[in-house]
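Lecture notes, part 5. Sequence design as translation. It can be helpful to think of inverse folding as translation between two languages: the language of shapes and the language of residues. The source text, in structure tokens, appears below.
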């Protein structure tokens, strides 16, 4: 009998590194504001892993995790929430991120490029305006972004994970509107295929566009945090710093940090 694996479990193990993400968020907030953030909202939360990581860091931390999809939230409630010591400190909410009603936040996160799903300037700007309004005056908005000359290419990349293969599929890209179809497929070591386990039709936004839209949405300061390079390997070193000069890599991931 071939074993059936859980796609959310595989996603968690292959896509997310919530520890590193929260390390960055925690340290950067402290560097900017000089104190510790407590209230965090994770937009497009999926199963809410990042919000859970936030709550697990400190007994005073509280998080709200927002997603439209009832099934992913349900998975989080049954598989992520029970691992926390203080389950009441993580609140899931099924809502549109533009209208979740969760305000007065120290931190709002929009990670894993999920806001790329808003494909018109006006729609994305409206989302950014709603985030700004939901932050404390001392709050910070964190986003990630990806790009590079291979980001707009139709390609498939495979990575071996424990018990399965993760396949990232940039299936189509339209240069006229920058919209692209991406999929995540999985294949278990005993040959079970999970085709199109996750599907994303979104716009590949550029960093200048994103910085301009955040500024138009009223954010007073917008910085791109670029990853340093490990001298020996030539690969990224995992250290992201505010920077005005990036490198013309084939594929990069960076953070954007915006202050209201
Ligand atoms: C790329 S996944 C990211 C999941 C998770 N944040 C992560 O980091 O792995 C995008 C998620 O955004 C949710 N989503 C899409 N549009 C949304 C909206 N307008 N409001 C709330 N959630 C939305 C989808 O249901 C999906 O779970």
């Amino acid at each position: 009998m071939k074993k059936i694996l859980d796609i959310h479990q595989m996603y968690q193990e292959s896509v997310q590194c919530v520890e590193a993400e929260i390390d960055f968020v925690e340290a950067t907030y402290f560097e900017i504001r000089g104190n510790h953030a407590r209230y965090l909202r994770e937009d497009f939360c999926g199963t809410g892993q990042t919000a859970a990581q936030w709550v697990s860091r400190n007994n005073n931390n509280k998080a709200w995790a927002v997603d439209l999809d009832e099934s992913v939230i349900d998975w989080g409630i049954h598989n992520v929430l029970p691992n926390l010591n203080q389950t009441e400190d993580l609140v899931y909410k099924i809502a549109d991120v533009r209208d979740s009603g969760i305000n007065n936040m120290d931190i709002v996160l929009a990670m894993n490029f999920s806001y790329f799903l808003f494909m018109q300037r006006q729609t994305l700007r409206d989302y950014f305006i709603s985030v700004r309004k939901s932050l404390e005056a001392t709050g910070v908005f964190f986003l990630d972004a990806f790009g590079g000359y291979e980001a707009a290419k139709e390609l498939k990349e495979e990575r071996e994970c424990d018990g399965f293969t993760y396949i990232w599929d940039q299936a189509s890209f339209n240069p006229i509107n920058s919209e692209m179809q991406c999929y995540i497929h999985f294949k278990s070591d005993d040959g079970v295929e999970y085709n199109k386990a996750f599907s994303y039709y979104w716009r590949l936004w550029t960093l200048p566009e994103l910085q301009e839209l955040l500024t138009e949405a009223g954010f007073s300061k917008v910085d791109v945090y670029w990853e340093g390079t490990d001298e020996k390997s030539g690969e990224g070193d995992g250290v992201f710093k505010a920077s005005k000069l990036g490198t013309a890599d084939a594929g990069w991931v960076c953070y954007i940090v915006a202050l209201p």
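The translated text above is only one of many valid answers, since several sequences can fold into similar shapes. The longest helix spans residues 18-33.
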